[in-house]
């Protein structure tokens, strides 16, 4: 990857359609780590301004919100428009400190086996003009959180203890994180493996932004942009009803009635599957219902009935044999 630096500025008003005079630095070239632009993407103004402050002013930004609200893609889509290289790391319980920092490995050098330090993703990113995104920040193991806390300090240096090296961050290194729960831990037992973020951990982030689900009209517009076959009056009514079902699952999730919710991603694949199977109920079963706990399928079937005015056939509420 190149060691380029930002070489021009873009106007937030023009590029993100947000009412702001802010201009932010951007790279001239797109390297392989720059995410693809999603033209149908809708930017939440507050979260986007927070992220832009992160890029422009080197603020550490944590984005929180329920599953599928667009936390990770918001960061990626901002980066995509600034041509800012971007790397995502999921902090789920499997990632260890050594995965992050690096470890000694035996390699072959001139026919000889030698032990060499192979740097992990953190030292790699830290020394480059890269936006590093920690996904599922609230699921990180304590040993991993300990390392991250230190780079969140003001000077952000990373000490590789075993290596006797201190790494300084590249001036265009940026750090972001996303979390389902901030400070609340595992609400209603819904986010397994999420730790309660303590005050000291949250306090190290300069900006904490919150993302909610899109307004129904906006979500419908996104679905339509992805599945243009559904253009027209009937298609629009269909999408509106699908988005209503999704909304009911999210309310049910918040209330603790459901353990699975329908994310915008699922609504999009449901809409695509309507085209594949030619029937909204069949597509619903295959895109969402089969992912739900059997004990909750009756509730989900009722949501469908409320939004479509037709029963979901009983057989759909049972697991489908493989
Ligand atoms: N504002 C938005 N505009 C367009 N698509 C969105 C938006 N928010 C979410 N999506 C879509 O919803 C899906 C889930 O988004 P993602 O960023 O993975 O959510 P999260 O990280 O909050 O779980 C993605 O496929 C994304 O394209
Ligand atoms: Mg995410």
UniProtKB/TrEMBL annotation:
Residues 57-203 form the AAA+ ATPase domain. Gene3D superfamilies: P-loop containing nucleotide triphosphate hydrolases. Signal peptide: none annotated. SMART domains: AAA. GO terms for molecular function: ATP binding; ATP hydrolysis activity. This is Cobaltochelatase CobS subunit. It comes from Amycolatopsis marina.
